[in-house]
Amino acid sequence: MAQTLSPDRAHEWITRWDRQQEGYLPDREERFTVLIDAVEAHVGRADPLVLDLGCGPGSLSARLLDRLPRATVVAVDADPLLLALGRACYSSLPGLRFAELDLRRPGWSRELGLERAPDAAVSTTALHWLAERDLRALYAELAGLLRPGGILLNGDHLEADGSASRLRGLEREIARKAIRRRFPDGHPEDWRQWWDAFTADPALASLMAGLENGSSAASHDGSESILMSAHVEALREAGFTEIDTIWQRGDDRILAALLP
């Protein structure tokens, strides 16, 4: 990607990515800020090792390193196009490393080549794509990977328990109102429009030609682990002992989980 897409052009695409994401998450930047606040407050060191799970093009990773420049962030995603975009844009950040790995595949963490146990794992708007069985396996693997007392921070659309149907409806309506206030004329560009435009960029032609199965992220369809209760139960089964929401706007929340 570094040979086919300049850092400036990659930055333009990520800026456009961030903008279309705000069409679904009007408080996205505040969520980023709170999540990084939690990392900084909890880990107790200026040079933490942090995993960014389902990192996409690295928007959260870059913001984390802007706040904690001595940190090391290993950003993991299965999509080669988004990773290539992040590598091109953020090649000047020495603390950032991207890894193309499928979080649904058992043992993915062994391929990271980590020299010590991570202090924290973070994720934003990614883990709800996983089927519940894959989510449970992921959390179990994380519980064995993070250091004692390590933290997981998951910012995502996580709805109230299925039995609380009126609360789920209320959360969704709060989210819709926030989006309408931020974008009264509708989304400037939705997720599908961004992907269609991105993959049509001539600068990506050589990279696209080398992909056997195309972009995995571009084919996402549906949200399989959208209930907060599914995440809480999976985290508890994995061995996390303190689990709670530390920030929320409608159904957009940061779920935090601590190891003993």
Automatic annotation (TrEMBL):
It holds the Pfam family Methyltransf_25. Keywords: Methyltransferase, Transferase. This is Methyltransferase domain-containing protein. It comes from Thermostaphylospora chromogena. SUPFAM superfamilies: S-adenosyl-L-methionine-dependent methyltransferases. One of its GO terms (molecular function) is methyltransferase activity. Residues 50-150 form the Methyltransferase domain. GO terms for biological process: methylation. The keyword Methyltransferase applies.
